[in-house]
Amino acid sequence: MATTSDMRTGLILKIDGSLYSVVDFGQNKTARAGAKVWAKLKGVDNNRTIEQTWNSGETIFPVRVERKPFQFLFKDDTGYTFMDTVTYEQISVPAIMVDAPQFLKDGQEVSVLLNTETDLPMGVELPDKIVVLVTYSEPGMRGDTATRTLKPATVETGATVMVPLFVNEGELIRVNTKNGEYVERVKE
To answer: CA-CA to 12 of 20 to 30 Å: which in 20, 114, 167, 181?
Structure first.
């Protein structure tokens, strides 16, 4: 049985029959009372975000999750279709279960979270950083690099990313999929 001391970011807990992923957690200590453990939780099987508090040492109920590599195939009316890179089995996942669908490219490898009890997908995670091609961007002004001024750029997946003025159309950039921000320009 797990306790609050086993809490970590990314842990999936079962609370009141629903599954939640730990986004952030911490501990509050007071002089007289026992320590409390708090967590910000994001719904895995629902679209809710909640905060929960436990007494230190209290029992929590984690769900065993397996991460498997899958390859993105296509998107249609039923959702996003992925293929297991080992067994070639295909699964379809609704858009709400994909953490950054605007950055999915055909053939891209992702991690699918599978509930080991039911073998059902619980979510799809893209790599933290991906390389994409800038398909459209206004030309930057020469010499305007003193400030951190940003301009919108459309990448090959159709998403819009704010990039520095020196990034031009046809260049490869690295993007953080968690917050959608530009990281760096990639040399070929």
So the answer is: 181
